[in-house]
Each structure stands twice: as structure tokens, then as C-alpha cells.
Amino acid sequence: MAQHDFDRIRRFAFERYPLRGHWVALDFAWRELRAHHVHPPAVRDLVGEAVAAATLLAGTLKFDGTLTLQLQGDGLVPLLVAQCTSDFRVRGMARFEGDPAVTDFRALVGDGRVAVTVDAQERAARYQGIVPLEGASFSECFEHYFAGSEQIPTRVRLAADAGRAAGLLVQRLPPGVGSRDVDTETVDALLAETGAALDALEPQTLLSAGTESLLRTVLGTYDLRLYEGHQVRFECRCSPVRVAGMLKALGADELHAILAEEGAVTVTCEFCGRPYRFDAIDVAQLLADGASPSGSIRLN
Ligand SMILES: [Zn+2]
């Protein structure tokens, strides 16, 4: 595989039809991300697919900040979060409880919802969309998200294993984008045809092929224009200041109760496992000066 196909998201356009697509494959970024978690393989792969999905979604949207894709359900994975910033830094986490041998998607996620939020720098999160958790795979679930929330017919295929997480998305151009004069029926038929090709794709092909050979395999009958794309990398953006802000939201009573019982307030970042410890002096300071502990918080 060509070097420029590692840890990248690339966009492609259909030359003659109002369709576009995105491809992503995470290699080092994915292995670095998952090294912070101990999960059964099925849960690990689910996180990989969600991170690939969040990256694809970030590629399709215009925003400046962080996109968060969150699954909440009553299955064995009650919470899964995948994030991608507008400059393609990713992180992800999942909570898991129960039988590590379970691999069925529905059993893992249960009934619940998928929510996507986008928060611009220094502004409160706003909902991009929220849909029920539906479908037999994360790919299907993500297609429901596009249909229900973005109102853009979209076909997606996602896959992940220990070494790689990848995704391929094809969708109609959003209304008002492009001006190709093709009737709706033709575009619907094309998207159905493309979807069938994605369904037929072996996960291993999606995980191992470079962009060009993959697109030749899946969409070889169309004239496509493939763009260079962006690098994607793992990065956790947790910091003493952010953790202090989170603790402050718990309130003084709660923090004092934890201090009385345990001598310090300890927090472990669920994305990267980085430990944070706040003793009585740190807590007094964060409660006193509020949002900006200005480096006074000690990091273990
Ligand atoms: Zn972190």
C-alpha cells in the first residue's frame, strides 16, 4: 500500500453524477488509540468503526471544533464515544460490562440512540442530530443517522480489526452543492448500485486495500476524481484545566465528601488513561479561582 494511504481521509467525486464519497483508513492512529483500552475484540472493533465513522462525518461537514459521535444504549456497551476534530485528531472510548464473548452488534449496543454533537471552540455543544440505534451493524446504524438527521441519502461501509480501522462512504451531494443535471431516479439507482457494491465488499478488502485499488474494486465503472486528503492522528486533549473544570461542576459538597473519604480526588481520563490527582489544596484552589487553575493543579 502506498505510504500516503496510511492514516488518511480522502475525498472523491463522481465526474458525471451528483455523488461524492470519503474514504478513511487509520493505522498508527488506530493502534495508538486502542493501546489505551483493554476491550474484548468485538468491542475494540466497534470503537474502531465508530472512530472511522466520526472521521468520515467530520470529512463531510463544514465546522471548526470537535465532532462527537456518541452511542448510548442498554446493551453490554452502555456508552461509546468517538471524537474527531475539524483538523482530524481522533480519540475514542467505550464502557463495557458483561460477557466478553458476545459479538452480536444488537446485543452489544442494545436499544438506545446515536447522537452527534459539534462544539465550536469556546462555545457550547450543539446537536447536529440524534437518531435511534437501528440496524444490524454500525454501518447500517450510521446510514440511518444520515437519512434521519442529515437528510442526505448515504451508503457506508465500516470495518476494524486489531491493526486497522477503515470506512468508505458514498452520498448524494447536499442540496445546492454542484449543478450536475441528472434526474433523481438516475441518482437513486446509482446510489442503490453503489450500496450493493459496498455491501459485497469483504471487510478484509476494506481494511487492507489502498484507496485507488479499493475504489477500482468497488466503483471501477465510474469516472472518479480522487483528492489527496488529510492526515488523521490520535490525540487526547485532556488537560489539568479541563479536568478541573469538570470537577468544579460536581460542586464543593461532593468534592469535600470525596476528599474526606479518600484524601484526594482522582480522575482517570477515559480516552487515554492519563491519571489526574487533586489534593485538598488543589481542590480549594479550583473552587476559589474557578475556571482557570493556571497550572496550579499537579499532575501525577
Ligand atoms: Zn486523555
Gyration radius over CA: 21 Å
What is the fold-level CATH name, i.e. the topology of the largest domain?
Hsp33 domain
| CATH level 1 class label of the largest domain | Alpha Beta
Bound molecules: zinc ion
Distance between the termini: 41 Å
Biggest sheet, open or closed, and with what strands and sense? Answer: 6 strands, antiparallel
> Can you give the helix content as a percent range?
25-40%
At CATH level 2, the architecture of the largest domain is: 3-Layer(bab) Sandwich
Number of helices: 10
Q: What's the total number of strands?
A: 14
Our estimate of the beta-strand percent is 25-35%
Based on Cα principal axes, name the global outline: elongated
The CATH superfamily title of the largest domain: Hsp33 domain
